[in-house]
Amino acid sequence: SYPSFNEIYLAALKKILFRFEYSSRPRDQLEREILGFSVRLQDPRSRYCFHVGRRQNIVFNYAEALWYLSGQRDLKFIEYYAPSMANYSPDGINLPGTGYGAKLIGYGSKKLNQLDRALKILRHDDPESKRVVLQIFDADEDILKSNIDVSCTLALQLLVRAGKLHMIAFMRANDAYVGFLNDAFSFTFLQEYVASALDMPLGSYIHIVGSMHIYEKDVPRVENLLSQVNATPSLASAWTLPIMPPGCTPELIKLMLEWEGYIRRGEVSSKDIVALKQEKFWVDILLLFWIYRAIREKIEIPNELSKRIHPLHWQFILNRWSNQMK
Ligand code: 5HM
C-alpha cells in the first residue's frame, strides 16, 4: 500500500528489474516477469510519475481516459495523441482489444452499457454489491499469436465500502514501464468519474496483474530512470492535485469530446476555451489539448496560459515539450 502512484511505479520497476521470477519470451519478445503482482494506491488522484526522466505524456493520458468514456475504439482519435497506437491496430481502423471504451459502454452483441448499469446499481439497487464488474476481456477475443491486439485488462471492479468508491483493476498482463503508467492513470480517472457521478469520496485503487513484466528492450531505459531518481529534480511539489468536481454526467463527457474535436480541427482559440462556463478541472484538460495542438502546429502559446493551467500540468508540458514550444 502506497500513498502515490509515483512510489508504486518506481518500486514495481525496481522489483521486476532486479528480482524477476522468470525470463520469458511470449510472442517472441523477451521479458523479465513476475506473476501475481498486486498493489494498493491510497490516493487514486495521485496518478503521475513525477520524475523528469520518465517524461510522462499527460495529454495522452487524459485523451485516453476520455476516449474510454466515449465508448469508441477508433484508432483515429487516440493515434493523434500517441502515433505508436497504430502498431496495435490489426486493420488500421479500430483497436479491438485496447479500445476499452467500446467494451465499457457497448459490450457484446447486446451493446450493454456497463458503466450506466454500474452507476444505477451503486446508486439505488445494491450500493454495497460485489457484482459490479466492468468486464473488458471477452472470451470471444482471438487469442492466437497472430492477433496483435488482445485486451490486457480483464475487468474493473467497483466497490462502495464505508461510503467510499474503491476500484480493483484485474489484468492478465501489464507492461510495467509503458502500460502500467498509462493504465493506472486512465483507470483511476474512470474511478474518479464514477465517484464524481455518485457524489461520493474516493477510496483506494488496487491493481492486480497475472504477468507483470518489463520488456528486455526497455531495460536500459528503466535502468537509466532508476539511476536518476535520486539525482534529478522531481515534478512533485506542494501543489494540490487536480480534483474532479462532483456531479459529473455523461452529458459533460459528451461536451468534452465535442470540444476535443473543435480543438483538434483548429476551430477554437484558447480564449474560447477559457470562456467556457465549466469547472476549472475540465477547462484545464481542454487547454492541455489546445497546447498539444499548438506544439504540433508550431503555434505560439499565449503567456497567460502558463498561469491559467494547473501548475502540475504545466510542469509536465514543459518537461516533455519545452524544446518544441513557441
Ligand atoms: O502478448 P500480449 O497480448 O500479452 O501483449 C500485449 C502487451 O501489451 C503486454 O506487454 C501487455 O502487458 C501490454 N499492454 C498493457 O500493458 C497492453 C494493453 C492493451 O490492452 C494495456 N496495457 N492496456
What does this protein structure show overall?
The chain is of the alpha+beta class and 326 residues long. The protein is 42% helix and 16% strand. It contains twelve helices and six strands. The protein has helices spanning 5-19, 58-70, 75-81, 100-105, 114-125, 179-198, 219-228, 250-264, 270-274, 280-296, 303-308, 311-321, and strands spanning 22-24, 31-41, 133-135, 153-161, 164-175, 202-215. Strands 1-2-6-5-4-3 form a six-stranded mixed β-sheet. Strand 5, helix 6 and strand 6 (202-215) form a beta-alpha-beta unit. Helix 2 (58-70) packs across helix 6 (179-198). It starts with a helix and ends in a 5-residue tail after the last helix. The model has no long low-confidence stretch (mean pLDDT 97). 5-(hydroxymethyl)cytidine 5'-(dihydrogen phosphate) (5HM) is lined by residues 26-27, 97-98, 150-153, 173-175, 179, 183.
Describe the structure concisely for a colleague.
The protein has 326 residues and is an alpha+beta fold. Helix content is 42%, strand content 16%.
The largest sheet is: 6 strands, mixed
Q: Roughly how many Å apart are the termini?
A: 42 Å
Q: Tally the helices: what do you get?
A: 12
- Tell me the helix content: 40-55%
Task: Find the count of extended strands (DSSP E, 2+ residues).
Answer: 6
Bound molecules: 5-(hydroxymethyl)cytidine 5'-(dihydrogen phosphate)
**Spatial shape:** globular
Topology as H/E string? HEEHHHHEEEHEHHHHHH
Strand content: 15-25%
Structural class: alpha+beta
Radius of gyration, in angstroms, nearest whole number: 19 Å
> Which strand order spans the largest sheet, edge to edge or round the barrel?
1-2-6-5-4-3
Q: Unreliable runs, pLDDT <50, ≥5 residues?
A: none
> What's the average pLDDT?
97
